[in-house]
Amino acid sequence: MHLLLAQIAEAENNREEKRKRLELFSSAAHEPRYGDMYNKYIALLEAEEFSNAEKAIEIAQREISNRPTPQSYDLLAWGYLQHGNKKGALTIAQQYVENRTYEPDAMYHLAMIYHANGMNHEAQHYFETASLSSFELGPSITRQIDKYLN
Question: What is residue 139's predicted lDDT score, i.e. its pLDDT?
Answer without folding.
Answer: 87
